[in-house]
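Regression test case RT-17, inverse folding.

Input:
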């Protein structure tokens, strides 16, 4: 399974919406699951993008963007974790290229 994880803040809402579309609908190899940590949100916002592949959770005040790596402990050994930044619109072949490079280098690598 290809799992992506990221953090976002309300000020980056517009680009975050675009990023979700890019990762779930536009990638040549879309992710199977996208975990999103909501920083500086006080509650889950129903106007955020909704999709069965999305899982939102509220960030704690002392957490930074590094929290996106914490999802790794919940993954199976064969899963691939992609971490994303909420201020970047990635190329449509970003996931495919990353997986290709990982296959070439070895699954225990970080790229």
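Golden output:
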């Amino acid at each position: 399974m290809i799992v992506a994880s990221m953090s976002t803040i309300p000020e980056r809402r517009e680009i975050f919406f675009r990023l979700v579309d890019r990762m779930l609908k536009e990638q040549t190899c879309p992710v199977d699951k996208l975990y999103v940590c909501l920083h500086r949100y006080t509650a889950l916002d129903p106007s955020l993008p909704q999709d069965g592949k999305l899982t939102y959770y509220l960030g704690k005040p002392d957490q930074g963007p590094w929290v996106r790596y914490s999802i790794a402990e919940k993954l199976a050994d064969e899963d691939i974790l992609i971490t994303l930044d909420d201020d970047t619109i990635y190329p449509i072949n970003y996931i495919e290229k990353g997986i290709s490079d990982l296959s070439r280098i070895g699954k225990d690598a970080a790229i």
